[in-house]
Amino acid sequence: MKRFTLIALTAITMITGCRKIEVDGDNNSGGGGGGTTENLILSGRINTDRTLKAGNTYKLRGIVYVVDGAKLTIEPGVIIQGEKSSRGTLVITRGTQLLANGTLDKPIVFTSDAATPAMGDWGGIVILGRAKTNSSFNGVAGVGEIEGGVNNAEGLGLYGGADDNDNSGVLKYVRIEYPGYAFLPDKELNGLTMGGVGKGTTIDYVQVSNAADDSYEWFGGSVDCKHLIAYKGLDDDWDMDNGFSGRIQFGISMRDSLIADISQSNGFEIDNDAAGSSLLPQTSAVFSNMTVIGPRAALTNVGNSNFRKGIHSRRNGAVSIFNSIIMGWPTGWNLDAGLGSPTDLNYSSGAPKAFVSNTILAGNNTPFTYTASTSAPTGWTTADLLNYFNRAGGGNNTYSNTTDVILTNAFKQDGTADWNPAAGSPALTGSDFASAKVNNSFFTVTSYRGACASGDTWWKTWTRFF
């Protein structure tokens, strides 16, 4: 969500404006003259139902909008390349659907068209829905303009509405590689950008790798997600604001210790909105079974100095984290109640809105930092935040070193990392699903903490680590 690096605006002018779909032949098979050739270049607008066929490699040229209620179906095994020269980007606008339903052995791959791909080659995937958000645009409450410069005079970059059950399609067994770029400071495209996406949408088994901003960012919406991987992104792994209220279970994030954003890179970045207001819906997502690996395998490791916090709770966010592992970050949890927002009260009041429970913090040079709210002082200090984390019944644990968690090989940078807990790991036990926030039909009850059990394979086969 935050960056101060400018990308030359000449690249932006190449991808704006209205274009028709590029055609190299009739898209229907059959006919005289020896048949036809399917168009493999996607550009401009897709305004009728379209299927991308297995066995083909397609290219996104510039900003590609799916519009007018169309459905873009992608068959298992299809490769879609974002064109580097035009910053290819796929935008699923409100009322349309992306049906990208890959399989374990035939994932759908979005990647760069460059011969030597690199972070930020193309713009990633943007999904815009009609679920609730606390954003406003041109004086209209409940509607937001997505970041990244994809909006136009027709409002194709707007998100939000009143339908939390809105369905933007399916994203399953999908890899998104080398996406994201900075349109302007604080106006970036991410790996997977979601604005007002409703819980009728299926997002499961998705890997974002080498994103040039956040791996995942939710702007409002209510979408539930499972089995997400954020691999070697630049800015934040899990960024949420503007009233995101969805549920997330089973997530793995890992960093390249040398690559971080100048604006500071975190695991979780949590805001209600940029002003820290009390606008509703409040950002109140619930995460469980997350393994959030920072840049420091050991306390003496430094790496890039722009890495900061495993959890950054601020600006009146009220997000809960259960049954998770956050380790290897310079700071474990920063509870920041600055800007006069009562972020601390969301956790410390007599009737808290949010919880951090049954979670492991390990290998943090500074486990906790705290900035008290000015509008609603609580008398808390950093010591009180530590006491909250260690509260009776909270089920949380802190460990001095990442090795105390005994994951198989959590920091290996050559693509062979393994985040499964090994014998003797405290993560093999200690989970709890008694809270109403996780005691529901969405969450799968586990005995272990973190994203995977001993010997777990859900993050293997369909993924790629490099």
Low-confidence segments, given as residue ranges, are: 3-36
Q: How many extended strands?
A: 34
Average pLDDT over all residues: 91
Number of helical elements: 3
Range of helix content:
under 10%
Question: How far apart lie the N and C ends?
Answer: 25 Å
Largest sheet: 26 strands, parallel
Structural classification: mainly beta
Coarse morphology: globular
How much strand? Answer: 25-35%
Rounded to an integer in angstroms, the radius of gyration calculated over CA atoms is 22 Å
Give a verbal description of the structure:
Strand 33 (407-409) and strand 34 form a beta hairpin. This protein has 466 residues and is mostly beta strands. The strands form five sheets. It has a 26-stranded parallel β-sheet that branches. The two termini are 25 Å apart. It is globular. The protein has a domain at 1-30 and 37-223. The longest helix is centred in the last third of the chain and has 8 residues, at 382-389. Helices cover 4% and strands 33% of the residues.
